[in-house]
Amino acid sequence: MSPSQPRAGTFAGAARGPILMIVIGVLFAIDHAGGAVISRTWPVILVALGAMKLWEYGARK
Amino acid sequence: MRGRSIIGPLLLMALGAVLLARNLYPDLPIGEYIANYWPYLLIFWGVMRLGEVVAWSTKGHPLPSHGVSGGEWFAIFFLILFGSGIHAARNFPRNFNVRVPWGDVDIFTEHYDYPVEATHAAAKAPQITIEDFRGDVTVKGDGENAVKLTGHKSIGAMNKESADESNGSSAFEITGDEANLIIRLREDRPRPQVRITGALELSVPKGASIRATRRSGDLHIRGVDGAVRVEGRGSDIDLEAINGPVSVDGAFAGTVRARNLTKQMSFNGRNTQFTVTQIPGELSVDAGDLTATDIVGPMSITSRSNDLRLTGFTNALDVTVQRGDLHLEPGKLPLGPMHVRSRSGDIQLILPEGAQFTMDASTGSGDISNSFGGGLQVEERGRRQTLKGAVGTGSAIEIETNRGDISISKGSVLSTPSTTADSVTGSVTKDGVTKNTVKKSVLEKVEQ
Amino acid sequence: MEMNPEPKIVGYCRACGKALDESTVRNANGTIYCAEHVPSQVQWTAPAGPIIDATSQPPSPAQYTSAAFHAPHSPYAYTGSQPPPLPGTPAAGKNGSPALAFFLGMIPGVGAVYNGQYAKGLIHVIIVGALIGIIDSGEARSFEPLFGLLLAGFWFYMAFEAYHTAKRRNLGQPLVEFPGFGGHPEQPSRFPIGPVVLIGLGLLFLLNNLDLLDIRKAMKYWPAALIVYGAYMLWIRLMGASPSSANTSAGPAAPPSDSASATDTRSL
Questions:
Q1: pLDDT averaged over chain C?
Q2: Are B325 and B308 contacting, i.e. CB atoms less than 8 angstroms apart?
Q3: CB-closest option in B62, B67, B83 to A16
Q4: What's the pTM value of the predicted model, to 2 decimals?
């Protein structure tokens, strides 16, 4: 493949899904370990999603 | 270097390892491990995917626009559903006190029962401490100067041998001296995978004071003269015929019910707190309602979201709720002072015929209906309505809600049909039209 | 191959997500693929430009990621003959039926899955579930009619959305699963309002859940969202850019709460 080929995705875009998975996993792990319950901490997922979109936006610019 | 070739096989290997371990070591609490540690699978999966993306990025490979595909998210969704389902099924009755209708679910274990019997001499008015083992306890006060423990011990284990072994190394026992007795579960070699619960009956001297720390299950206490203190978490709490002060503090998922208490009861739950001077009748509180009949104030009740229904209460009342409908029906005259505040919800006050009081009621958004007529004046400013005035000379009644209707009606005369018209008079006139804002329950009363 | 350094991106490969321009896009099964992943035996059409031999290029690692959860015989591997049915594509025909999509769209999530849009299906299910949950919990109180209308509207939206997606699929038009929200880099200069709304909502709910803020109490400040949105529009005007039509949900989403409650409480 020639280097001039357009990249399908950005690093931020490709990393978004995995990071989201990790965040969700960590929240559930905390919940099950007896810490903050997921019903309270779920907005962290929204924040993480927004932060990553922002990151993507910044990386694109 | 294919994403698919790394993660698929690894997940398969993990599944194989789990099933292998289950076959080789049947005693291992695999279910418990899965229930508690499945999120790490998600983390691991995410880390692998992230690692791939980082690796491709550093090697200059083209990156996908999404690191996790739609189909994969679907699988993740079901993993989360499955994992949290198992976790909930195994832990809710214990940790979160949400009662699952089918009881204590154990996926990989069976329950074996063993009888419990123990006796200990006790003083006339001993202090009895019930430690925080799992299971149901019923405490009854009687005339004898002894503490007797009966019932059974239930052991959840993989097989009978394992349960027998745990039975041999554990016991529900009574320790301490005659004045200070402790009921507890002794476990010489506690094993996390074996769960021991009790279904116990305790008969104690009538003068006993009880202190119970709960972890799960129901607690019934009946007929003791000393102080009763319950804390922790669990399902139902049932207190009856207690002559000492009662305090309940904790998160109880079932119904907390109190009957025939001659001293003060204070309750401090997650959602609701109250202090009541006496409960000759009955008071019960669960996740959505607080209902009481024939209780004696001064009392104060605060709640985040509960419907309140107090009938036949006497003396001063102080209520603060965030949201919920309130139905207040004092039992006798003269009325005690009332302070009722609600952020959101309808308030219905039913006063006995001939009640004398000073009223100051206001709603930020809603209607006020009043069946006491003339002495009370409704005033409107925008959406806000206030009702002020006095009927005779009596205690102050202050009612305030940010949003919701307020209805003040006469209670005991409603048996005669002629009062239907009465309850409409004085209802709010808006835009020159008289609105029949008679509350539904008032009408129901009329029909009775 | 000769390529423009900044080719105009017309879509993304269904299989690997690679960005495609006019010369690399392949239409098949009602959606688009890159040259490597276009299913064989299906007549694909290259709109313009040189035709690339599908088998001449080495497979990129990226192509397998999204296939990880599909059948072991990945439909995206170029096996040459008899392609297995695509996920979400009915085996009967190579194109989906818009009418069927419409009716399946009445079942939350199923319409989107029928169109092969799994993530969208999932999100539809979650939204319907959340709306029903809100209505059922009674927490919404005076907002309940609003949530009821939202639910009804969303239900029809799902059906029509599935219908239109199926239609586009049949016409071979490029599909974007989440237009305006998917982070596709078409308009890099746009103000990142989606992420900001997400973060804002997340923080709001987090504060509420940690008892640091009462959303009910905060609701009365909803007109502030109008001010913020106005400021944003002003900013856009002053910057000389045109305001984006998408993602305006930040501001006027909150209904005039008081009038809603007034009708509610007065209808005895």
A1: 64
A2: yes
A3: B67
A4: 0.46
